[in-house]
Amino acid sequence: MRELFLEIAGNLRNNKLRTALTGFAVSWGIFLLICLLGAGNGLMNSFMGNIADYITQTIYVEGWRTSKPYAGYQEGRMVELDETDVTWTEGPRWAGTVGNVTRQTASTGVTFSLDGNTVAGQISGVFPEYREQNKTKMYAGRFLNPDDIKERRKVVVLSLAQAKELSPRDPEALVGKWVSAGTVSFCVVGLYYTDESNMYRTCPIPYTTYKGIYDTSDKIESITFTVDGPETKEEYEAFENEYAGALRLRHDVAPDDRRGVWVENGYTDNMEMNDAQRIIRTFLWILGLLTLVSGIVGVSNIMLIAVKERTHEFGIRKAIGASPAEILKLIISESVVITAVFGYVGMFLGMIACQIMDKTVAQEAVDIGVTKIQMLVNPTVGLDVAVEATILLIVAGTIAGAIPAWKAARVKPIEALRAE
Amino acid sequence: MLIELNGINKTYDNGQPLHVLKGIDLAIERGEFVSIMGASGSGKSTLLNILGILDNYDTGEYWLDGKLIKDLSEKQAADYRNRMIGFVFQSFNLINFKTAVENVELPLYYQGVPRKKRHEMAMEYLEKLGLTAWATHFPNEMSGGQKQRVAIARALITRPQIILADEPTGALDSKTSVEVMQLLKRLNQEEDITIIVVTHESGVANETDKIIHIKDGIIGEIEENKAHTAWDGSVMK
After folding, report:
1. Which residue among B79, B95, B97 places its CB closest to the CB of A321?
2. What is the mean pLDDT of residues A328-342?
3. Is B93 at the interface with chain A, CB within 8 A?
4. Residues B167-176: what's their mean pLDDT?
5. Is B135 left (phi over 0), alpha (psi -120 to 50) or beta?
6. Does any domain span residue B161?
7. How far, rounded to the nearest angstrom, does the alpha carbon of residue A2 sit from its chain's CA centroid?
8. Cβ–Cβ of B110/A313 closer than 8 Å?
9. What are the residue ranges spanned by the domains of chain A?
10. Mean pLDDT (chain A, rounded)
């Protein structure tokens, strides 16, 4: 092995230009592959990060107007869910699939006022789980807690945008202050962060408090729950159809009346996002591999020319006793050594480029009006990719060397010796 | 008998068939110093290539040291060339990017001899040929005669049965030519190596003990030349 390596080292040293050109082709290919994968990862991280804010992975069920007549009722009837639906959802029938169940009351429009400033809001009774399920990000203070529910506290969580209206100079100071909402006063316990669309005007208060003040019935607006179990989209859809169908029948709604009882799921969205992620990743790899192929073709090309140039030398080697296998071994090893060494260099430079991207481009956020997004988040490649790329390199080197090597090994010594 | 050829035929087929060797019968004893002489196109180089297992033949039999050399795999052929035959070429055929000593070592590399051992042996042979000072020089830094001596050292290093020399003096001036032929003669006498020289020069052939004339692919006269009187010096190269 050492003998072969010394032989190769000598050959490469004595053909510096060729070695450099071949090396450049490989380094460049790998460099681009790593940069591409890094930038791709960055884009994907950014994309996923931005979308993850909206994907909840939960099932949301709400009653609405029926769209077809059923069981003696005409279409257009308003369906209202109630507490028994929650108990039923939590019940044994769905055990194992349905996880954590929570519910939300309808909402009531109020005007909050403090020291002459006013802002509109929609008060809705919720449970602490609301925060997790709606991906609410807290800006200041806290969200509702179980004690608030138990003690029916008159507390409210406002959005930052609303807080800015009520307390323009120092929105944060609003936390702990009492604001009036019509005839009732609420203590602001926290502010949640909203994007600049100002779409979220829901002001969560404890479920029990809402039921005590605004609506004493057992009607609810919606049920939200997590599921575990379904692994494919098909499995999930089967579950959803069964669940929603049964729920609709409870309210004398046609089992396929999607509008009568509306089900919205973040679960398949999440799966779709994973699919999308996989597709993008595959696509990036294909692009990267195609780049690498051009590198391999480059190496192969140069090796072909080199082999042609060296035909006479191989003739000499054969005349003094080199077998075809020796020639094959020599060329393929040369090719593998070149690709491995220069590939490593390219990979290293690619990693550095990724780091530079991370420190520069990735730090800039682009303002898209509604919100600010980072175009690239952590645009780097992991060790696993580096290892894969290394294996790829060795394979590539072998392929690049194989054809020229086979050609050289096949030439009869007498023909090789005649070549100039 | 070291070499025995029975009815060797060889036809090249490049577009139209060219019958180069037309039934060659030849026997060469161990320790002989023979030249094969003929004009260009006589088939002498083809014959040498067949003897050196660099080329194959169509019909007939070639026995080398009791082994039938026919339909060998490339690997076997390479092994026989390596162990039994040493080549000396007109154009030296040294590898340009290897030093003299590395060139001489190369046949041993293919035998799997360890690096240190083969370096020692190569230095020994270079010394024998008076090239110690040139060991680390590259071929393009040496004169023709020096290059040919390096090539001879390379041919000798595996202790082959035969040395095949294809126009060994073809690229050398007359003074160096004489030196190279004297060297081959000395190797034949002192080391008892069988040497076959292919040439078209009477002066070169005259240095050998036996001259085999070949013409149009057929062996003509075989001249015993122990006294080296076959050539009167009238035709200089």
Report:
1. B79
2. 86
3. yes
4. 88
5. alpha
6. yes
7. 47
8. no
9. 2-53+271-418, 58-267
10. 84
Q: For residue A327, what is the nearest residue in chain B, using CA coordinates?
A: B110
pLDDT at B237 over 60: no
Contact B72, B55 (CB under 8 A): no
Task: Quote the number of domains for chain B.
Answer: 1
Per-residue confidence band for A372, with pLDDT thresholds at 50, 70 and 90: low
**Structural domain includes residue B39:** yes
Q: Average per-residue pLDDT in chain B?
A: 90
CATH of the domain at B108: 3.40.50.300
B16 domain-assigned = no
Strands (E), A90-221: 98-104, 107-114, 117-126, 137-141, 155-159, 178-181, 184-193, 202-206, 219-220
At A51 the pLDDT is: 67
Residue B10 forms part of a structural domain: no
ipTM of the complex: 0.91
Q: Which of A11, A323, A412 sits opposite B75 (nearest CB)?
A: A323
- The answer to whether the Cβ–Cβ distance between B75 and A324 falls below 8 Å is yes
- For residue B192, the enclosing domain spans 32-57+79-224
Instruction: Please determine, for residue A290, whether its predicted confidence score (pLDDT) is greater than 90.
Output: no
Q: Cβ contact (<8 Å) for B54 and A3?
A: no
Q: Per-residue pLDDT tens for A166-195? A: 888 888 899 999 999 988 999 999 999 876
Q: What is the pLDDT of residue B50?
A: 93
The torsion angle over the Cα atoms of residues A158, A162, A168 and A170, rounded to 10 degrees, is 20
- Candidates A11, A318, A417; nearest CB to B78: A318
Q: Are A371 and A197 in contact, with CB atoms under 8 Å apart? A: yes
**Distance to chain A for B103, nearest Cα, Å:** 10
